[in-house]
Amino acid sequence: MANTIANTTQENGIFYDKVLLKRLVGNLHFVKYGQKRNIAKHNGTEIDMRRFNSLAPATTPLTEGVTPNGSDFTVTNVRATVKQYGDYVTVSDVLDMAGLDPVITEMAEVLGEQAAETIDNVIKEEIFAGTTVQYAGGVAGRDSVTAVLTGDEVMKAVRTLRANKAKPVADGYYIGFIDPYCAYDLMKDPLWQDVSKYSNKENIEKGEIGKLHGVRFVDNTNEFVAGNVHGTLIVGQDAYGVVDIEGSKKAKIIIKTAKEGGSADPLEQRNTIGWKVMFTAKRLQELAMVRIESGVTA
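Request: output the structure for the sequence above.
Response:
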């Protein structure tokens, strides 16, 4: 008997969930490098993430028997509110009766890709809106940018992060999200080290294409583009956070048969396959991220 939507078993449901996630996980680079935060169920949709600001070095010698004044520390609260996202497709009962198993699998794959792009876009819109911006060529603003991305621009961004005391993300390296157009220009730098030339291939980050001047670059096909200007984002530890409710950022696949349509589908003609997630992304530390805006080679 064909695995139609009408007789989809729990085991098949698990299989389709894995199909969706297989298509999804491969595209989620932004999720990986964000600080993970979790809201327990039944505790609302908001969370305050604390950022303790650094204290100045205590360079004044202590006086014997005298208690110093001590320092005042400041805490910055960054509030994040999780939101729900999702979509579905409708499959007719005609396809169902014809034997739908391949269609379910194909739809789960397409929906998984859509879910991945949705999650990626939500995070991208948040983190690429950071306030620490470097314009290639040393120009004053985006409207004047024509220079392409170079190794020198990467070094300037790393200088900014180090001066801001931003900690590296992985093995002493910062992470750079770079699109194919900017990567094309940056790879021309004679010091560029392609991932295929790494001596230790076991520690390669997923999607990594190469490294330069203390930055490991991850391929970002979900590019930031404003007119003719492209953005490359370099981040350190805890630059941004990704928040969900007990794992709700994991896309859940939902299959509804025509028999479950009730009065909205009186002739039992429509089956649906869908997904939903509940999460948000939030910039936590502007000093730990630099967006380089550059032109690209035509």
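Helices lie at 10-25, 29-32, 93-97, 101-127, 151-163, 180-186.
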